[in-house]
Design brief:
The chain is mainly alpha-helical. Helices cover about 50% and strands about 10% of the residues. Helix 8 packs across helix 10.
Length: about 170
């Protein structure tokens, strides 16, 4: 079950990505330090009503409207002028795949739980089990970076075979 804080963080990211804005651009519009805004969106910093209200304001919304699950993302014409200017500049911008929320850790965890991998596996094995659209945009190094992060140490053990990393499932999932 998703916490209310996580729902709001996801909403903040959804609005930013919808308008193709960078975290730096949103931080500038909100007058929050970029590191603070990033920590709010990523979940490493505290989120509160005051900061959420500041973020909502750049979209022309009150705090209550912004967090309302039935609220639709405002059309560009309805945005405050400063926000509209940034959004129009970004309108035709391509979003790099690294900025798209792919929920890669969640997808990898599902693959580990699926028991479709051999006890010893490589990142290529995981990649082959990802949905086709992700296989086209995800590199094996990004998969390796993901499963060597905190949160996977209880599931996999990292070894080496030649120059490549070899992973081993620690427990019988």
């Amino acid at each position: 079950m998703e916490s209310e804080n996580q729902r709001i963080r996801d909403l903040i990211r959804k609005y930013r990505e919808h308008y193709k804005c960078s975290r730096k651009e949103i931080a500038h519009l909100t007058k929050l330090q970029e590191a603070l805004y990033t920590s709010i969106e990523s979940g490493t910093g505290n989120i509160d009503f005051d900061r959420t209200a500041i973020i909502a304001k750049i979209y022309g919304l009150s705090l209550l409207d912004f967090i309302n699950p039935k609220q639709k993302i405002p059309q560009i014409e309805l945005l405050p002028s400063a926000t509209k200017k940034v959004v129009l500049k970004n309108k035709n911008k391509q979003i790099p795949i690294s900025n798209i929320n792919l929920n890669l850790p969640e997808k990898i965890r599902l693959i580990l739980d699926s028991k479709q991998l051999p006890k010893q596996f490589t990142t290529k094995d995981i990649k082959s089990l990802l949905p086709q659209n992700l296989q086209e945009v995800i590199t094996t190094s990004r998969i390796a970076d993901t499963i060597t992060r905190k949160g996977f140490e209880d599931l996999v053990e990292v070894g080496k075979i030649g120059r490549s990393k070899l992973f081993e499932i620690k427990i019988n999932l």
